[in-house]
Amino acid sequence: MLEFATNFATDKIFEVMKITKSILTLCVVSLLTSATQVLAQDDTTTAKSRLTVGGYGEAAFSRHFYSDNVFRYSHADRYTQAPGYSRLDLPHAVIMLGYDFGRGWSIGTEIEFEHGGVEAAVEKETEETGEFEQEVERGGEVALEQFWVQKSFSKTLNIRAGHIVVPVGMTNENHLPTQFFGLYRPEGENTIIPCTWHETGVSIWGKTAHWRYEVQLLPALNSNLFNDAGWVHNGSASPYEFRPANSLAGAARIDWTGIQGLRLSVSGYIGNTFNNDITTTVYPETSRYYGATGTLMIGSFDFAYKNKWLLLRGNADYGHLGDASLISTRNKNQTTMTGNPYPHTAVGENAWDVSIEGGIDLFSLTKWRTGGKRLYLFGRYDHYDSFVPADGWADVEWAEREVVSAGINYYPLPEIAIKAEGGVRLLASQYNDEPYFAIGVTWAGFFKK
Predict the structure, then answer these.
(1) Would the N or C end of the chain have less CB density within 10 A of its end CB?
(2) What is the mean pLDDT of the chain?
């Protein structure tokens, strides 16, 4: 009897323990589930307010109704009946990441893949009589267009340090493919100065209701990489795993938006470019290069105006290179050993460009403009010269070009544009004009903001 009672009591105790364990397990699971949901909700809120993920890019097809032979300017008469050529390209594919740590601290990055790959390619070099060369524009496997840390004290005062965009000209500050009409970036500015121009440096910027300012301290450009076809465009490149910075430069920009829909901007750059390479040379007083600085000055004005049916944009740039004659002499005499990354051409003492583009949103004139859809019919004009020679140097007449183009931009959504354009590049009368057609799709936006 005693044994039976003991066994009965033991069974009941275990049964109660099992029930209690089940209840406790259920409670713990419920608590954990609730906590996870709360944390997830909090994490989602945090991610939405602090993390930004976006990007931009283009896919393009172009047909060029002229020869791309490297002798098409020096022997233009041979290429009057050239059949032309076509290209498929991914000009830019960019991933943008940003994060707000709080207390005024944030970071921003742009990782760019140009032409669908790394910044290294085999090209035919005009100045090397058409021979194939390995072109390396910038050390590394991808282009790190931006990588900065920022401390914001107020809207009027922010300090940014790292790899940043140089805001000189219209295109550098507005380089997303939804910020210009053509399939490719505006030709004049994209020819004579770096675009998109990015350097490692320090920036101070801020804004008020109608003004925005920015000043930067940067490494100066490298005059060894200047040439006749692109003036100082390649001067920000480096074939090494670092950027030579024997000389520093300054850049600045001011934007005014005091009238609704209108932006007026001025920007500029100044820096010494001579001897700013991997090694520096100490020239004796008897040398022609003694005291040369290669001071580069660039000034720019650009504007944009937009209302519900019209969009206008334009810019004017002018640049002056001190000691251009000495730099030309030095560049033409640089080593020609295999793998040498330097051009061997003269560089202009001055360069300039002007451009204007305008578009009418046809949907704004109809009932079809719903959900942000837009259809712009646009026209564009560029006129630029990448080589205005120094005294004693012959002019490179094909370096002055005009480009007239027109086309459409269809926006099914604000972040996506389908573009088509046709145009012609006009040169001096002894050269062949260069007509082209291009079509493609572009996008720019954020996945998380």
Answers:
(1) N
(2) 86
